[in-house]
């Protein structure tokens, strides 16, 4: 009689794809997965840097925002945000055009990202501009950007916002049926990301809900019961059971309601 482990191995082997000669197809699969993904986009390797690109072959603006935010957070605010750099890279660059900037954003400006007209970091009108200096917002309009910033300012204290760390908030239509989503920083994603459908920017609840997810993971000053147990500190999912996910969602909904009352 087969023991449990052997039976399981045999079952897996039966399910594994084989070529015409009956050999396992593993190798071919591995070759296909060799390219890296950055923030769920395929990436091109240029001068040792993995640079993401979208279906138009351009570096996605939100990934450049995340990269700038990451470098700001690691090296201190880049002094050149308000200053015109000698070299300006055009809006929506290709990975080749963006490569030198991706490696070191202080070398030059990308139009709309860190040139003097950039509005990724509009924090002047906030109660405490310092509390959001690691939060980049890529919204459709300046009004939307300010709305997002004021909403999170009203729901979290300055300390709580700082404890979230480096996050890039993006308003995008690519969410399917979801109003919002959160993607955590990993070695393949430059910063934590919060995505909001443009139509949900005004409901306030969507951005607070996603920010609560992030805060539950990143804010280490929280009590154990108010922390997410679904991810480890690198943002990797460590709890994938439906029960774990449902518990995290329920706790987030309750906390969001409380914060909306503030
Ligand atoms: Zn949620």
Plain-language structure description:
The protein has 262 residues and is of the alpha/beta class. The chain has 2 domains: 37-110, no CATH class; 129-260, no CATH class. 37% of the residues lie in helices and 13% in strands. It is built from 8 helices and 9 strands. It has helices at 4-15, 26-32, 61-75, 95-103, 142-155, 158-164, 205-218, 242-260; strands spanning 37-38, 41-46, 49-52, 88-89, 109-110, 135-138, 167-171, 180-183, 192-196. The chain has a 4-stranded mixed beta sheet with strand order 6-7-9-8, sandwiched between helices. The longest helix is centred in the C-terminal third of the chain and has 19 residues, at 242-260. Residues 25-33 have low confidence and may be disordered. The structure holds zinc ion (ZN). Zinc ion (ZN) binds at residues 209, 213, 249, 252.
Keywords:
9 strands, binds zinc ion, 262 residues, three-stranded antiparallel beta sheet, 2 domains, alpha/beta
Radius of gyration over all CA atoms, rounded: 21 Å
Q: Output the helix-strand order.
A: HHEEEHEHEEHHEEEHH
Bound molecules: zinc ion
Shape: globular
Number of helices: 8
- Report the span from N to C terminus: 64 Å
Strand line-up of the largest beta sheet: 6-7-9-8
Total strands: 9
